[in-house]
Amino acid sequence: MENKLDNIHVFHYYFTDLTNNMDHKKYYYMEAGSYSQLYVKELFDGKINQSMQVYWKEMLLRVHFASVTSIIRNKKWFSGVIYGIKSENLMIFASSLRGFLEAVTDSYYSLESVPTSLSLNFRNINQAIKGELNQPLLSNELENKLLHFQFAAQSKDKYENVKKALKSAKYIELFDMYSDLKTKELYSLLCEITHPSLKSISCFTSEVIVSENYSYMITSTISDNKQILEILNKYYESIDQLMRLSLSVTVLSLKILNLYDFDDVKSDYINNCAVNCIISKEGWNKILKMIEQSSSSI
Asked: Read out DSSP for 123-184?
């Protein structure tokens, strides 16, 4: 158990190192109507290099925005997990771990395909960035996922032109689709603890059995640490996967952005940050190979 706790603190250090050295960018986007006019005009003129440049610069800015805000949000929730462990406070631990789980699975839904998409189309996208691509290159799926990440809301009543967010259980289901982890089971347990329900009461009580015919209940808070450790031990594989994917997908995306000829999405700190320890060399080499083999329109 001690090694598991040490590993959790190591990941907190990774988050802290990233957020302390993070570059904060300005994100700029052309109004949709203006972009449509530009695209149509260029189609008539027989050249669409400028509209492709605008499209892909904005797309890469959205990737950077989604990656950075994911790291910040995940770090805030994970700091609560750490505090819950240190203070032996089950409610803070459970609510923060639940928030972390929801945040990671939400980010993973939108960003999971980003490294592959950017790598397989690297050369054409880079030509577009430089204003040299004079053919249509759009990615509706990537665009929709990035817009979903930024604008999806549970309720549309107070917002205009926003996307409907999925239920948390759906994000978790998609996250667990290719593994045998117990993330959904962990989420159910955390919800029972944080919601006003039986588990949120029974976790602070114990039954004392005196005899076959007589028993009584007592309230107590001294078992918090024991219950926290039991959750960590039983669901550690799921928690470890959440920690790793909370950083690996976003960091890979930022590392790929550094390779484009577009200074506004470069993050020099990312190549030397501590979290590179969990980035598979084999995985990164596969990405570099995809980039090398990506097709070019010129």
From this structure: HHHHHHHTT---S----HHHHHHHHHHHH-BS-STT-SS-PBPPPHHHHHHHHTTTS---HH
Look at residue 298 in the predicted model and tell me its pLDDT: 47
Q: In Å, what is the CA distance from 9 to each residue of 70, 76, 92, 243, 272?
A: 19, 14, 17, 11, 20
Query: What is the tens place of the pLDDT at every residue in 177-220?
Result: 866 777 999 999 999 988 777 676 677 777 778 888 888 777 77
Q: Which domain holds residue 273?
A: 2-293
Is 184 within 8 Å of 190 (Cβ atoms)? no
Q: Quote the number of domains for the chain.
A: 1
- φ/ψ (deg, to 5) at 109: -55, -40
Torsion-angle region of residue 132: left (phi > 0), alpha (psi -120 to 50) or beta?
Answer: alpha
| pTM, two decimal places | 0.88
Q: Any idea what DSSP says for residue 267?
A: -
What span, in angstroms and rounded, lies between the C-alpha atoms of 172 and 275?
24
Q: Is 298 part of a structural domain of the chain? A: no
pLDDT value at position 173?
Answer: 84
Strands in the chain per DSSP E: 205-211, 214-219
| pLDDT cut 70: percent of the chain above it | 92
